[in-house]
Amino acid sequence: MKPAGLLLPVIGLAAALSAAEPEPARISRDISAKIREGLPTYQPPAAPAEGGSAGTEGSQTSDPNVLILPKLTVKEKRLPPDAADQLMSRDDFKRKMENLYLDEIAKDGPLNYLLNKFTIPILSPSKAERGKAIYQRRELDRLRHVSDAARSLDPNATKKLERDLDNSHTTRPAGGLPKK
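Above: the chain sequence. Below: its structure as tokens.
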């Protein structure tokens, strides 16, 4: 017989014997009374001063089970609009870029969709890379629109924004962005 087979009945017997014995009292009443004598008596907290917070005076109750907390305002910090792109996994982001590319070519009609749906891995970029290029182009167009709107407010700030846009992406067209 294996040692584990012999150990199982011994553990079962020990558990049965320990369950049959009654539990002794943990602390007698005499010891409990002596412990209580040595403890200080309960002193309820002092009432708040009259010059305290004015907002909690009207909400005081005589029920000892009610706890009144101070008023608290929570200000939510919102995530940036493009936070979803940084929070999703690589596979989800790749799927999103592929769907963006397929949606873009579907706008031109079913024949264009059929011809451009398939890619040759060695000769052409993947659908995800094409989708990412479309995404970056749309983002640059959006920022260009912001730049055009800000041009009337501060021309120097607009020039700086355009310079930053030129330097921010390595996939910009040759010669920089067209001047307007």
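The chain has a mean pLDDT of 76.
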